[in-house]
Amino acid sequence: MTPTQFPGRVAIPPLPTVLGAFNIAPAEEARSLLLSCLHSLRWAERVAAHRPYPTVDALLAASDEAAYDLTPTDLSEALAGETLPVLPDGAHSAAHMAMDAAHAAYEARFGHAFVICLDGLPAGEALDHALAGIRSRLTNDPEDERVVAAEELRRLARQRLVTSLRGVGHRATSPHGTAPGA
Predict the structure, then answer these.
(1) 140-179 pLDDT, tens per residue?
(2) N or C, which terminus of the chain has less Cβ within 10 Å?
């Protein structure tokens, strides 16, 4: 029984959650948070417009759906807002030089920043994974690479959204019930 079913007792409303705060935030505030996750105005507006979300999983599903529907223009907008993946603390200068050189070759070939989601990888493997990814993707033709980059952006948006929700002091969970990256 809930507290409202007991005569003479006052129902205690649930504590606000990060998702609840996102659901009731002014549209501009929600779009701003979303744009920090993926630099596509259309994506951010679409995800914000479908609030309220009953669960984090529902929000992540809406994020995925909106990311799958990015037009070539939306994708270009999102890619223009991206920067080189952050190398783990303690990476040697040689690693920075290798990443910078690979990224320069990537940008020259494809005209946008290299994007890769490193969610769930141990910090010690992130650099090797990023370098291997950029080197292998340099062999893609431009259209195939846009498809790969769009998928990486979708994964990044999802990771950043979960991180944003968790960063406010609550732990958001992945669809598997665990904190992403944990």
Answers:
(1) 999 999 999 999 999 999 999 999 888 653 333 333 333 3
(2) N
